[in-house]
Amino acid sequence: MAKKLELHPDRLFPTLESTRAIARRLYEQVVNLPIVSPHGHTDPRWFAYNENFSNPTDLLIKPDHYIFRMLYSQGISLEALGLKSTIDGNRGEPDPRKVWSIFADHYHLFRGTPSRLWLDYVFQYVFAMEVTLSTETGELYYDTINEKLKLAAFKPRALFEKFNIEVLATTESPLDDLAHHQVIKNSDWKGRVITAFRPDPVVDPEFEGFVGNLIELGRITGEEINNFSSYLHALNRRREFFKRHGATSTDHGHPTAFTADLSDREKEKLFQLALSGKIDAQSAEIFRGQMLTEMAAMSIDDGLIMQIHPGSFRNHNSQIFEKFGRDKGADLPIATEYIHNLRPLLSKFGNNSHLNIILFTLDETNYSRELAPLAGHYPCLKLGPAWWFHDSPEGMRRFRQQTTETAGFYNTVGFNDDTRAFLSIPARHDLARRMDCGFLAELIADHRIDEDEACELAIDLSYHLVKAAYKL
Amino acid sequence: MAKKLELHPDRLFPTLESTRAIARRLYEQVVNLPIVSPHGHTDPRWFAYNENFSNPTDLLIKPDHYIFRMLYSQGISLEALGLKSTIDGNRGEPDPRKVWSIFADHYHLFRGTPSRLWLDYVFQYVFAMEVTLSTETGELYYDTINEKLKLAAFKPRALFEKFNIEVLATTESPLDDLAHHQVIKNSDWKGRVITAFRPDPVVDPEFEGFVGNLIELGRITGEEINNFSSYLHALNRRREFFKRHGATSTDHGHPTAFTADLSDREKEKLFQLALSGKIDAQSAEIFRGQMLTEMAAMSIDDGLIMQIHPGSFRNHNSQIFEKFGRDKGADLPIATEYIHNLRPLLSKFGNNSHLNIILFTLDETNYSRELAPLAGHYPCLKLGPAWWFHDSPEGMRRFRQQTTETAGFYNTVGFNDDTRAFLSIPARHDLARRMDCGFLAELIADHRIDEDEACELAIDLSYHLVKAAYKL
Amino acid sequence: MAKKLELHPDRLFPTLESTRAIARRLYEQVVNLPIVSPHGHTDPRWFAYNENFSNPTDLLIKPDHYIFRMLYSQGISLEALGLKSTIDGNRGEPDPRKVWSIFADHYHLFRGTPSRLWLDYVFQYVFAMEVTLSTETGELYYDTINEKLKLAAFKPRALFEKFNIEVLATTESPLDDLAHHQVIKNSDWKGRVITAFRPDPVVDPEFEGFVGNLIELGRITGEEINNFSSYLHALNRRREFFKRHGATSTDHGHPTAFTADLSDREKEKLFQLALSGKIDAQSAEIFRGQMLTEMAAMSIDDGLIMQIHPGSFRNHNSQIFEKFGRDKGADLPIATEYIHNLRPLLSKFGNNSHLNIILFTLDETNYSRELAPLAGHYPCLKLGPAWWFHDSPEGMRRFRQQTTETAGFYNTVGFNDDTRAFLSIPARHDLARRMDCGFLAELIADHRIDEDEACELAIDLSYHLVKAAYKL
Questions:
Q1: Nearest CA to B139 among B110, B108, B99?
Q2: Which of B20, B116, B332, B361 should be substituted to probe chain C, the one whose Cβ sees the most C Cβ atoms within 10 Å?
Q3: C-alpha pair distances (Å), B432 with each of B15, B414, C257, C273, C348
Q4: Is pLDDT of C262 > 80?
């Protein structure tokens, strides 16, 4: 017999009843606050054209590398999950229902993972499923969700409103024309969907097609990019364009946190090398590092918040990359260093009151060793929340336990969902709020803070800090 | 007055009664499951000839570097503990009773360590001691244990059966003739004791006597080892020989996780260098890295599971090494890197469904940063349990807390005791089962998983996963 | 209305009542033990001349980089906090009352930090404040504290006695004449204030004014320092001088834990290079490393305990350093390595029973990976307590959780307050005792140790271990 699906109202709270009761009280203060999502990867087309999502598999499985990564790790091929190979002509399993059934058969693999918590939330609160997903209930799930997705109430804008999203940021390349954002802006829909400026394709000489990207950047900005100065000028213009489409932030996905502060002559020389397409790995790293410093200078001028996301080894599985392309679950964390690497930038701009940088890490060893001490000193620095692999109950707990004592709460910036999985956004914010309320409840329970302070903090962590940090 | 020795039935379970009750229920499901011990260092002679152990000191202290390391760290000389110096003619304290009395006098040093938990388990459950060990009771302990060791019920095979061991793997050099395993096999005893293939002496050019080892390898395989191809051939033959003696796995104790994928010409050149005995440290590291890739290729062919144990700085204390030799408690962990280091091997074989690699670490920073993300993606990779210094309550808790959310439970392989201390095997497995049940109970208590799932998981973690992962 | 200030008697204890009751019983055994403070940075002048402290701001805010660092990170200038710039003539806010009011306005920033816990302790127990600090109560606080500071009962020696300090170590440069310590010694006051030997200014070629410092060292020791041998001789004499003023320890604040063991010729060459003032960064690092080994040799001779505090990147914020000088909250931790780095020293002296080294870290990844295994083996090594950024409830908990299982309790040395903030000393020791009692209570609650053992341990961790380790 199918098992009942029934998320417990106290889930993720501390288990001691007296502490749990505190957590519950704090949570009541924040559960209905609007969602502010300053960083993510949803598709602006959804909100521009408001078309129904196609089917459960295309919506919930194929774009979510958290899900297919786990299935792949246990021996299920990506083709069987419907992913298309760009190289061997394999089109992937064409029947979404078959893919769903594989997922249902292997749902136990997600036990203990945040994916399981997010999915059950979506199943219960978005799709009103009443039994848990399993081999037995896979077909029922597919049919029920598939039917609902055809309804008006399940169109992107309706869900956006139902989710109580106050603002949602997507992330675009400087080469993007932001046409979908323009459509949203021109529509009579009131939902606030903004962009964020992600310059990797035009500041990382090792990005696929970098030289062509610069040519395109020149074309769309009307700037002849032939030296470092015209290059910066074009970037500045593009930032301005993004700001007009609502952007309040930039985002930098560098392999390391390395920054540089070169002389004008060195910068020009390095730029010409990059432009020639013949730059080596070491020079490319220096170029990227210099560009972080340049972007900091621009942020001081135009006020965009700067997010730095270092430490991911992209496309580690070369065979998967060659067959299926980017973002297939094979981006892996590497040890990351901030103290030496950020120093050139910080020596130049670290005390500038107009600069705002939000630092992220995939290397948790930096929470207490480097990041909290940095954010606890430099006025330009704040800490982004637990990110990616650490965007989970234990990951969030470690983040608070290892950053709070040195950086306090007010050098952090609330939660980011950072997701492509639109439907999981409320689930993720709910999880973050529960964990923060639980953490605060523990501090109250052992008398480190008082409940009135914690109540203020719970609201700040859920709502005010993110709005302030991202100028939203 | 001597204090009563009485291990609490709820030891190591969560302290909140409601959660503890859950842990207890889960533990009841696994407490009597057979022990599967796929990786360890017990002596096959014990089971081949089934002779009585000599005395408490020779059995419990001298071979256990967990114990004499702690005593040494507090200023007690290894000689006083009965260890023999190979260099200065010091034969070590000859009277085992005197050594035991030093141990008894210093038993408080082990408070808070897993050694204390294992020892008390052995004292209570194996030797039925009723008071705790102390200066006062040292002699009683020595006499009681010494007497029992003379009984038939305390012979190795009897204990093996009493301990409910389903299968026990030892670890041998490729140069071992496996004669003791052959004796076990030829005997009418039904206990399953198998070997594992540990090729370090013949794949690490920096191993003591490497060149001589290759000559010996050639001799026993009847292969003239004069080029890389004949070398691989000899290794293949030896793996085949180990398989015939029950081996289902290989084990690789490299200083780092470095792997290489060289051209045939480079491999040959490097091999000749190694064979000449004049290889430098850097080339030796490349050679070892290439050999991991070669061993992976062989594993794909012959199906042996590949265990990689990197990150130990062996024989750090040079004076102790010179006086007393290997394995004297001075093997120390070093920071270990997996993402870049494993990439050559993974780029070649990472998606091969016939490959099975189990990764271990002494550097816990890798649990969440590198190992869980690797195992949560690559189908050939699984995570070995918390190892060596981390084979302890807090160590196991960190392992689960830091790997589960990304890798899930099903990319792990149950428990390894990895011990020379035969009598501690049930104690170690019991500790691991208790910690897993406690961890699962916490997940149930804050409503992350349901009890029926946790019950399945508890049994999987104690029994099924290890059998599947090691093909036992 | 102002909120009542009332520290809970059970603060920081485990939240489960049954475990908390155990913690309470253990704490009762240690709460009134004298304070032994073997390492810190209080000013010996206070105890030599016993003058009243000037005002709340000069006593509690300006010397405490924990406090102004947090305020600075949130955009408050150091000038506004009364700190003087040495470069731009800015004298800093002259009115201590104004500075105090900024502090009061921003007291919420310290929520969740140990500073908050220490400060509230000082406010309640030293100054008998009855309401919490806030914008509203800032003036009341200033006035009350200001008045009390004029009383005899708030003079340094009176507070020292009130705090039940058995011995307090300060830290001085070898160039210090220890005149203030001499005054204390010559006085009829019974308080024990001793010095510690901190040779960084004369062993680190990159220390400001190193060459001049050597000349001064020669002058005060009457030694002509022109070669390595006369240099060592001068250092030896200075250590002797410090011993006569009560020193039982030396302290070494190196950027890394690197040690060296060079030939006499290499040492001489390196020393001449250092003496010339033209040494490069790499050679300076080797020189420092060699000096750790030399200092170990001297410790073997004169019995001074050697403290090694590696891993701080000093004065990271170059603009702040140029304007305000050292110790302005911009010393940041860096990843630290011990296993390879300490080996030269340990290979030479690691088994010498006359050597005592206490190791500290700002890089917590070393607790379980490197430091506990080192201290759990080498007889000369013990672990200093959680240091600086980790001198906090969560930091101390991680220290015990990650070191105890391998090193045990008896390879640790109790607590260091390491503070310039004299008034916070009882608060810090109280916090450490509470955390240790809580940790022990958890071990009892899940039956890892017995309460009689824990009781002994609580007293050892609070009192006996530090006295033994520092020979006090």
A1: B99
A2: B332
A3: 17, 9, 35, 56, 39
A4: yes
Q: What is the DSSP letter of B392?
A: S
Work out the minimum CA distance from B430 to partner chain A, whole angstroms: 22
Q: Kindly tell me if the per-residue pLDDT of B130 is higher than 80.
A: yes
Q: What is the CATH number of the domain that holds A167?
A: 3.20.20.140
Secondary structure class of A381 (helix, strand, coil): strand
Residue after which a domain boundary falls, among C122, C151, C180: C151
- Give domain status of residue A160, yes or no: yes
Q: pLDDT by residue (tens digit) across B327-364? A: 899 999 999 999 999 999 999 999 999 999 999 999 99
B vs C, Cβ pairs < 8 A, gives: 127
In chain A, what residues touch C435 (CB-CB under 8 Å)? none
Contact (CB<8Å) C10/A446: yes
pLDDT at B375 > cutoff 90: yes
Statement: residue B441 has pLDDT above 90? yes
Q: Is-above-0.90 flag for pTM?
A: yes
Q: C278 with C219, same domain?
A: yes
| Terminal C-alpha separation, chain A | 48
Percentage of chain A modeled with pLDDT above 70: 100
Is residue A386 in some structural domain? yes
Alpha-carbon distance B205 to B238, whole Å? 18
pLDDT averaged over chain A? 97
Q: Which of A10, A363, A394 to mutate to test the interface with B (most CBs of B within 10 A)?
A: A394
The count of structural domains within chain B is 2
| Rg of chain B over all Cα atoms, to the nearest angstrom | 23
**Which partners does chain A have (≥3 C-beta pairs < 8 Å)?**
B, C
Where a domain ends, among C88, C116, C151?
Answer: C151
Say yes or no: A113 and A45 in one domain. Answer: no
Is C11's CB within 8 Å of A346's CB? no
When scoring C15, C64, C322 by the number of chain A Cβ atoms within 10 A, the one with the most, hence best to mutate, is: C15
Mean pLDDT of the A441-469 span: 98
Domain limits for position B451: 17-52+152-469
Q: What is the mean pLDDT of chain B?
A: 97
How far apart are the CA of B334 and the nearest CA of chain C, in angstroms? 7
**What confidence score (pLDDT) does residue A250 get?**
98
User: What pLDDT, on a 0 to 100 scale, did the predictor assign at position C144?
Assistant: 98
Please tell me the total number of residues recorded for chain A in this structure: 472
Helices B281-302 and B228-244 pack at an angle, to 10 degrees, of 50
Cβ pair C380, B373 in contact under 8 A: no
Q: What is the CATH number of the domain that holds A142?
A: 1.10.2020.10
- Mean pLDDT (whole number) for B264-288: 97
Q: Is the pLDDT of residue A90 over 90?
A: no
**Which residues does chain C have within 8 Å of residue A445's beta carbon, measured at their own beta carbons?**
15
Q: Is the residue at A465 inside a domain?
A: yes
Give a yes or no: residue C372 inside a domain: yes
Chain B contacts of C372, Cβ < 8 Å? 389
